[in-house]
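Record type: monomer structure entry
Structure origin: computed from sequence
Chain ID: A
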Amino acid sequence: MRLLRQAPLLLIAALPLAAAAHTGADAGLHHGFMSGFLHPLTGFDHLAAMVAVGLWSALTARRAWPDLLWAPLGFALMLLAGALLGLAGVQLPVVEPMIAASLLVLGLLVVTQRRLPALAAAALVGLFAVFHGVAHGQELAGESGAALTLAGMLAATVLLHAAGIAIGWSLRHANRWVPRVAGAAVAIFGVALLGGVV
């Protein structure tokens, strides 16, 4: 429980790691499953978005099955779709601003614990996930081992969603402020990123 109380401070302390997740920041060094798996864990913007999706799902689900899985599944599937688009050379405008906006919106959803219909929740996070995926796919374009790298990224995404779900489910009735503070930290980080890319 002590770690959960300190989580917002840890999130703020990790802000300098965010630059590692941006398009081109890795100089094309994605290779293989483990590199793909570690990439979302070392880029704070991607990590925060994926955990926030799981946290929001758990905090707002009416029942465990299947309500809390819609948004994480929507994010994971559309992340993969976006990555495949990026690999194919598809260029989307405003990739970095949309990634930053995803943090702002997801953080606010965690703070407010706003409940949306399951398909609307999946569509909303799926829209943002496309941009996260395109950023990854563009980094991988033309590299050998891209399929293994994408598999690693997808595995890490599912793991981060599961971590968010576990934290959110444990806090549903135990503590109202810890998730709200964490959500506020994610939203503030999104605003800071928007200020840097807009």
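Annotation 1: The first helix runs from residue 2 to 13.
Annotation 2: Residues 76 and 158 are 7 Å apart (CA to CA).
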